[in-house]
Structure formats: C-alpha cells, structure tokens
Amino acid sequence: MNITVEHIAQLLDGTVEGNPALKIHAPSKIEEGFEGSIAFLSNPKYEHHLYNTKASAVLISKDLVLLEDAPCTLIRVDNVYESLSLLLEHFKDDINPQDQEISELAFVDQTSQIGKNSGIGKFTTVGKFSTIGDNCTIGDQVFIDKQVRIGNNVLIYPGVKIYHKCVIGNDCIIHANTVIGSDGFGFAPKEDGTFSKLPQIGNVVIEDNVEIGACTVIDRATMGSTVISKGVKLDNLIQIAHNVAIGENTVIAAQTGIAGSTTVGESCMIGGQVGLAGHIKIANKTLIQAKSGLSANITEEGRKLYGYPALEYQNYLKSYAYFKNLDQIVDKIRSLEKEVDKLRQNKD
C-alpha cells in the first residue's frame, strides 16, 4: 500500500510540517523507523527518538513543542492514539488479508445459513441451524456448534470454539483459541462428600463491536445469559464465569478472573490479574489497578481502587509507603519506647 503524507493528513484532519508528497507504504515504531514508514509519538518518554528517527513521517500532537528540529515530515493531530487507530485500519488488509471463500475442507451443515461475502477456513465446522452474517471471516479449525448466531462483519481467528446457542453480534473480533459457552463452574455438594453437576442450560450473548483476545474463556449461564455488552474489549487469558454481565465499553486486561453472577458496570477499566469475587456489583467508570482483588460491591461511580483486598488508590499508595518501611518504623517505635522508659525511671 502506498499513500502520500498529504492524503494521510486529510484522512486524520491533521496538518503537515514538511513534504506532503512523500510516499508512505508501512507503519513503524518511532525507534525502528525506516524510509517510507510512518511512526507516531504519544508518550513523552519516547520524544528523544523523534530527533533521530529514520521514519519518513511521524504523527505528533498539535500541542507538542519541539526541543529541536526533527529529521522527518510531521503530521500534527488532535489525538495521536485515535489518529493512529484510523491510520492502521488502512494498513491492516495488507498485513492480514481476509479470505472470503468457503474452503472445500470446511464442514457446513446443510441446515445452517451463511451470509453474503463470508469466508470459512479449512477444517472449520458449522453446526445445525446456525447462522453466519454477511462479510464474515471464519478462520481455520473453528468449531461453531448448533444454533449459534453470528452477526455481520465478524472476524474469528483459528481455533475458536463457540458452543451451542451462543450469540455473537456485529463487528466483533474473536482471537485464536478462545472458548465461548463452556459450562459454568456449578456443582452442588452431597452428603457423601462428592459433588453433583448443575446443568448449565443458558448461553453467552456477545453484543456488537466487542473484541476478545486469545485464549479467553467465557462460560455459559446456568440459566439466562452471560452478557458481554457492546463495545467491550477483553485481553488474552481472561476467565469470565457463568451469569456475569460486563457493561458497555469496559476494558479488561489479561489474566483477570471474574466469578459467577458478578456485574461489572459501563466504562470500567480493569488491570491485569485482577480477581473479582462472585455475586458483587461494580459501579460504572470504576478503575481497578493490576493485581487487585475485590470481594464487595462498589456502589460509587468513578472510584480508583488498588490492592488485595482493594482500597482507594491514593490510600493504598500511602499505606504501601509505610509498609515498605515497616521495619524502620518498628525500630524507631522501640527506640522511643526505651527513651520513654528511661524518662519514667529517672522521674521515679
């Protein structure tokens, strides 16, 4: 793909400082730039790379004041990350071309329905009475069980497993080896110490514009639905248990586990390796730092939490500042106790 700097600037509503006729054919990291590539600068700690980058062009903020002249053409934009996202959309088909044919090595049940311009990869199975919408790309070795519904413009990478009666909305991306609709962890203890399995007869509903990372597992509901609302972004290696509900536009980082029947609100940001106990509710716009754990409801919107069990973010940092110096604090207290004892003895 070849595109001029001027065309990129028009696409991103940016302004050019330098040569607008330069041809760009690939994106690059700013520290690994090369002739014909376009890089970006959003984090100030990488600014030093701007002054020696070999990239032909760099996206920067309209507000950035340069410390010296840059050796490349600059495109100034309002929001670098948002502009980068738009730009990469134009390069993604070159990097990841989509095959819109149904492979002869795929098995598609005669009762299923496949939409227009949708492709299905080798050794993929589509079960009875399932539907796949228009403009979908289903990779190799994907298993789609019976009575599954998949919307339009969905991209499913190789090895994904979607169990029976699950629903995938429009414009979703599901990465390799993710499992959707596996049984929830439901067992009833018996008097003899063994466990009786509770049938999991619900499903998983994934709404529009959701992206799910690789090797993530979303369990089906015991009854009703496990719901991933529209706009949610899930990282790799996440466990979401039965009857969980994730609110719109929430983002969750890798290795987080959410126990059964927990509700996470809208526009929350949850860091990696967070653990959420079951049957709790997390308010909208909650921010939870990595490695934190919650076992109680969060009812106030917009709280920032950290720690295990989680505390208010600033309170945790203050407490940790004391904790890491705890041995010195204890020594000082013991020293003060000795001085107090001496003063008492002298007074007596």
CATH class of the largest domain, anyone? Mainly Beta
Let me know the number of strands.
39
Distance between the termini: 91 Å
Judging by the overall fold, what is the CATH architecture of the largest domain?
3 Solenoid
Strand content: 25-35%
Unreliable stretches, pLDDT < 50, 5 or more residues?
A: none
Helix content: 10-25%
CATH superfamily of the largest domain, called what? Hexapeptide repeat proteins
CATH topology of the largest domain, by name, is UDP N-Acetylglucosamine Acyltransferase, domain 1
Computed Rg? 27 Å
- What can be said about the biggest beta sheet? 11 strands, mixed
Main sheet: which strands, in order across? 10-13-16-19-24-27-30-33-36-38-39
Total helical elements:
5
Number of domains: 3
The structure class reads alpha/beta
Q: How does this model look, in words?
A:
This protein has 3 domains: 3-95, 3-Layer(aba) Sandwich (Udp-n-acetylmuramoylalanyl-d-glutamate--2,6- Diaminopimelate Ligase, Chain: A, domain 1); 160-308, UDP N-Acetylglucosamine Acyltransferase, domain 1 (3 Solenoid), CATH 2.160.10.10; 318-347. The longest helix has 22 residues, at 326-347. With 348 residues, it is α/β, with parallel strands linked by helices. Helix content is 18%, strand content 28%. Strand 5 (37-40), helix 2 and strand 6 form a beta-alpha-beta unit. The chain has 5 helices and 39 strands. The mean pLDDT is 93. The protein is flat.
